[in-house]
Write a structure and sequence with these properties.
The chain is mainly alpha-helical. The protein is built from 16 helices and 4 strands. The radius of gyration is 20 Å and the shape is globular.
Length: 370
C-alpha cells in the first residue's frame, strides 16, 4: 500500500471511530465534567464509574496489544523520558477549571456541537485558537520556556510508564511489570465499578464505558500497528496519518487546533487531514446522527452575556491547558492513562481536583447571591 493510500485509510478509520465515539457519548450522556459534578454536588457515582470502566477497558486492551507486539507504547507522546511535572500540574488545573466554566470538556463540546448547541460552537472556536497559539504561538513560548523548563529527564528504557519505573527500581523485567501493574490497577477499578448494584443495572453507563474504552484501544491499533510502515522516501519505519508521527488515539484539544489550522490554510498542500482531525469531525457527526435519529437536535444559545463570558474563558483555559498538559480528560484521562504513564495520572488528578474546587466555589457564590 502506498503512503498516500495508507494515510487515507488511517484517516477514514479515525473518522469511523470518532463517529462511534460521538454517537455513544450523546446516547449515554458520557461526560467527564458531568461525572465530577455528579459526585461533588449529588454524591452520585454512576457516570464516574462509566468513565472508570472506560479507563479499565482501554488499559487492558492497550497493554494487551503492547504485550502481543502489535504496538510499541514507547512510541507515544505520553511515555517519553521527559517529565514536565509543572506543565502537567498547571495544564491539568487550567483544563479542569476551563471545562467547568465551559460546561464540558473538549469531547463534550464536540458532542454538543453535533446536537445543535451554539454555545459549544463558540467554545470550540476559542478552545481551538487557544490550543493553536499554545502549540505554535505566543502561549507556546511561555509553555516551553517556563512550564517545561524544569522538566525531569528519566533515564529509563521505556520512559515514564509506571511498569518501567518499578522495573528500574527493583531490577525486574519491564514486560512482567507491565502485566502485573495492568492486572492490579484494572482489576481494582473493575471491582470498584461493578460492586455497585445500581451501576450494573444501568445499560447506558455500561455501554459508554465499554464502547469508549474499546474505541481508544482501536485507535492505538489503527495508528500504532496499521499506520506503521516503511517510508518510501527515507526507507525508515514511519507512523502515517498522525500529526505527531507517533502512535495516537483519542484526544480532542490539539486536534481541534489542527482542524482550525487546516481550515485556515486549506490551500497549503502541507496541511492534510490526519487521524486526529478526522476524529474531531467524526465525533460531531456521530452526535449529530444520534440527535437526528432521536429527534433531540435543538438549537441552544447563551442565556446572558455573563454565560457567554464564562464559556469563552473556559474554552481558552481548555485550549491552553489541554496542550500544556499534553491531553484532556480523554487524551490524558483515558488514552494516556491506558499506557500507564505517570504523567497521565498526574494530569488526571489535577483536572479532577481543579474541576471539583471550581464547582465548590461556583456553588458558594450562588448561595451567597441567593
Amino acid at each position: 500500500m502506498g503512503a498516500a493510500s495508507l494515510t487515507s485509510t488511517i484517516v477514514w478509520l479515525g473518522f469511523g471511530l470518532g463517529t462511534i465515539f460521538g454517537f455513544i457519548a450523546n446516547k449515554t450522556n458520557f461526560c467527564t465534567m458531568g461525572a465530577v459534578s455528579d459526585v461533588v454536588n449529588m454524591g452520585h457515582w454512576g457516570r464516574m464509574r462509566a468513565w472508570l470502566l472506560a479507563i479499565a477497558v482501554a488499559m487492558i486492551g492497550t497493554n494487551l496489544l503492547a504485550y502481543l507486539g502489535y504496538i510499541d507504547l514507547g512510541k507515544a507522546i505520553y511515555t517519553g523520558n521527559s517529565f514536565p511535572w509543572l506543565a502537567y500540574l498547571v495544564g491539568g488545573s487550567c483544563f479542569g477549571v476551563g471545562m467547568t466554566l465551559a460546561s464540558g470538556c473538549g469531547n463534550k463540546t464536540l458532542v454538543r456541537v453535533g446536537g445543535g448547541n451554539l454555545k459549544s460552537v463558540v467554545v470550540f472556536i476559542y478552545m481551538g485558537y487557544a490550543a493553536m497559539v499554545t502549540l505554535k504561538g505566543i502561549f507556546g513560548a511561555f509553555r516551553v520556556n517556563v512550564l517545561q523548563a524544569n522538566a525531569v529527564t528519566l533515564q529509563l528504557d521505556h520512559g515514564q510508564t509506571i511498569p518501567a519505573l518499578l522495573a528500574g527500581m527493583g531490577g525486574w523485567n519491564t514486560q512482567t511489570m507491565q502485566v502485573l501493574v495492568t492486572s492490579i490497577v484494572a482489576l481494582a477499578i473493575l471491582i470498584f465499578v461493578f460492586t455497585d448494584r445500581e451501576f450494573r443495572k444501568h445499560l447506558d453507563n455500561n455501554l459508554a464505558g465499554l464502547v469508549i474504552g474499546l474505541v481508544v484501544v482501536a485507535g492505538w491499533y489503527v495508528t500504532g500497528h496499521m499506520g506503521l510502515a516503511e517510508n518510501p522516501d527515507t526507507l525508515e519505519m514511519t507512523y502515517f496519518g498522525t500529526n505527531s508521527h507517533l502512535a495516537e488515539s483519542m484526544s480532542f484539544i490539539a486536534p481541534t487546533a489542527y482542524t482550525l489550522e487546516l481550515w485556515a490554510y486549506w490551500t497549503d498542500a502541507s496541511n492534510i487531514v490526519t487521524f486526529a482531525v478526522a476524529t474531531v469531525f467524526g465525533v460531531g457527526i456521530g452526535s449529530f446522527i444520534f440527535a437526528l435519529i432521536t429527534r433531540s437536535f435543538r438549537w441552544e444559545a447563551f442565556s446572558s452575556s455573563q454565560d457567554m463570558l464564562y464559556h469563552i474563558i473556559g474554552g481558552i483555559l481548555m485550549g491552553f491547558g489541554g496542550v500544556t498538559a499534553m491531553g484532556c480528560t480523554i487524551g490524558q484521562g483515558i488514552t494516556g492513562v491506558s499506557t500507564l504513564s505517570l504523567g497521565s495520572f498526574l494530569v488526571l488528578a489535577a483536572i479532577i481536583a481543579a474541576s471539583a474546587i471550581t464547582m465548590k466555589i461556583q456553588y458558594a457564590l450562588m448561595m451567597r447571591e441567593a
